[in-house]
Amino acid sequence: MFAFVSQPEAPPDTVGARFSIVRLVKSCTWRGCRWPIGLTFAGLVWMAAISSGQGQTVYQPGQSYFGRSNYIEYIAGDMPVIFSVPHGGSLTPSEIPNRNCAGNSADCATISDGETEELARAIQQAFHSHYGHFPHVIICRLKRTKIDCNRDIREGSAGSVYAQQAWEEFHRYINIASNAVVVSTGRGLYIDLHGQSHPVRRVELGYLLTADQLTNSDATLNQPAFAPLSSFRSLAAQVPIPFAELLRGSNSFGALLLAQGYPAVPNSVMPNTCIGANSTFNPTDQDLYFGGGYNTRLCSSVSQGGPIDGLQVEVNYAGVRDTATNRTRFAAALAQAMEVFFASHYRIDLRTGAALAGGTAGPARFHSDPGLLPPQRPPAEKSL
After folding, report:
1. Is residue 236 part of a domain?
2. What is the pLDDT of residues 225-260, one digit of tens each?
3. Is residue 22 in some structural domain?
4. Which tens digit of pLDDT belongs to each residue from 62-82?
5. Range(s) of the domain holding residue 334
6. DSSP 53-77
7. 20 to 30 A Cα–Cα from 234, which one of 94, 245, 265, 361?
8. What is the rounded distance in angstroms from the CA atom of residue 14 to the CA atom of residue 63?
């Protein structure tokens, strides 16, 4: 059983220094800096921020840190992989009133994603067993009736000052993890973990492309308009393979999960949400797909072309989340799939953190960030 180490103090306020690592890296790239120089410069600024009083907490990989009242938990990591779990909590404190969806977006919801918190903990342990290192994990421990950390702060906190603080802590911890990843490896992958109960038992991988867009041919998806719309915007610009191959080719994330025994759409066998290997897949399935939500848009490279790519992972219940044994099995399969994916596309050895020679990934090239403006809040979209 993982031992939690509670940190009573609130996480450091890095909102004002949000630009410090991720955004300074993009700024240097925009100005034509070479990548090693830009990363070194960003690291020096980060160390200066620590010495000046920001980021005073030294986060130990594998240990848990908490926000106010333990509503938000950050399990620190030392790998270029970040998981967040916005809808798996069970706490229902009386100081936070229940959310009312009246007057909010059509996508407002209060239904929790059962056992996703438990699944995230199994993933954290499986990664450590497989690699000897820890992914970053951010968990909202509040029930979704109290808060929704996958919506904007107005809808997600519903006017409660305590829910608002928890929402800010959740996203601040993601920012802390992202900065740590950029300092250590230069780029990484953020996964927003969810659960879905659609009739077809499969994992849904959301790249911020719609089900309709996924029905396009590879030739159409490879046109320049599509990759910048996706949460793999930066990675797609770095690898020399076509976007459709990155999205659903033989070494795509979906194909690697399928090879581990977990059907995941899209992949080379199921290139879109209404095509499959047997009769259980039919065109009506097309609407039953979550392509990515608020967090994936906010925290991935799609928003401003930063060094952290993103993916919304919606896992089915039976066979994945329903028992401790199944959660452990899926977590182990995910760790193995992640190793191949990073070696193939990021050219990073997740066991050592070392860069791998050759392969598909080219030098990091990030999009410009004119004016270093604060991140813009994306509009509401359909998401579990």
Report:
1. yes
2. 999 999 999 999 999 999 999 999 999 999 999 999
3. no
4. 999 999 999 999 999 999 999
5. 1-17+54-240+282-362+375-384
6. TTT---PPTT-EEE-GGG-EEEE--
7. 265
8. 20
